[in-house]
Amino acid sequence: MHLSTRPAFTQGKPRLKPPFPADIGLFGCPTTVTNVETVAVSPTICRRGGDWFASFGRDRNRGTKLFNISGHVNNPCTVEEEMSIPLRDLIDRHAGGVIGGWDNLLAVIPGGSSTPLIPRDVCSNVLMDFDSLMEAKTALGTAAVIVMNRSADIVRCIYRLSQFYEHESCGQCTPCREGCRWLAQVMRRFAQGKAAKTEIDMLWEISKQMEGHTICALADGAAWPVQGLVRHFRPELEARFAKVGLDLAGETRKRTMGVH
């Protein structure tokens, strides 16, 4: 929606629909907003036919997809592959595998920064298509695969995403404007080791208040990475503030004893 409003010198904010851009779009005229990837593959489908394109993938997940693979891999790349390719095969075949080997994998964000991460045990068997990733409680999204090995601080990684969405929120919808700010603030406390134990559940509750309650999907994109972190890496959050608590207690004892 931003693309169809900004050239008209209006604020780049989403609006309620209907009316849809196909009825009233740029300059009040019917406007078609098309994904570049769709435009790029259309001539080939026209030449070779729909049956050829549908021969890739599996039922309900047909065709090819551009996968962008980045992060802790030996050969970051963008590659066109068939839908439903196993995630592990995609990384090993085209990106040279995970740095340090598959056993060194920590987690993968399979569909761009707005999709929930999945841990290594899920990554080993998941297929890169809509249905398989939905079953894994994540999504294909933009198919931008972000690989994180065990050298990554998973809490700081998600905190960085929360910062991004806080900055990118246009502020029009209250759940997004306030929710993004709260998520970033709480995630900052976890990243700095200053969070309370009750704030894990607070993260989950805030994200659920944001999800599905705004005009556009930016609030969902801010909520889902945090949900993935809480769902799969709650022990990481708990260990962090538990460790900090011990460190603080030790520091208190030192000061009481006059040790500096």
UniProtKB/TrEMBL annotation:
It catalyses: a ubiquinone + NADH + 5 H(+)(in) = a ubiquinol + NAD(+) + 4 H(+)(out). Keywords: 4Fe-4S, Flavoprotein, FMN, Iron, Iron-sulfur, Metal-binding, Ubiquinone. InterPro entries: ComplexI_51kDa_subunit, NADH-UbQ_OxRdtase_51kDa_CS, Nuo51_FMN-bd_sf, Nuop51_4Fe4S-bd, Nuop51_4Fe4S-bd_sf, SLBB_dom. It comes from the Eukaryota. GO terms for molecular function: 4 iron, 4 sulfur cluster binding; FMN binding; metal ion binding; NADH dehydrogenase (ubiquinone) activity. One of its GO terms (cellular component) is mitochondrion. Residues 155-200 form the NADH-ubiquinone oxidoreductase 51kDa subunit iron-sulphur binding domain. GO terms for biological process: mitochondrial electron transport, NADH to ubiquinone. It holds the Pfam family SLBB_2. Its cofactor is FMN; [4Fe-4S] cluster. PROSITE patterns: COMPLEX1_51K_2. Gene3D superfamilies: 3.10.20.600, NADH-ubiquinone oxidoreductase 51kDa subunit, NADH-ubiquinone oxidoreductase 51kDa subunit, iron-sulphur binding domain. The keyword Secreted does not apply. Belongs to the complex I 51 kDa subunit family. Core subunit of respiratory chain NADH dehydrogenase (Complex I) which is composed of 45 different subunits. This is a component of the flavoprotein-sulfur (FP) fragment of the enzyme. Interacts with RAB5IF. This is NADH dehydrogenase [ubiquinone] flavoprotein 1, mitochondrial.
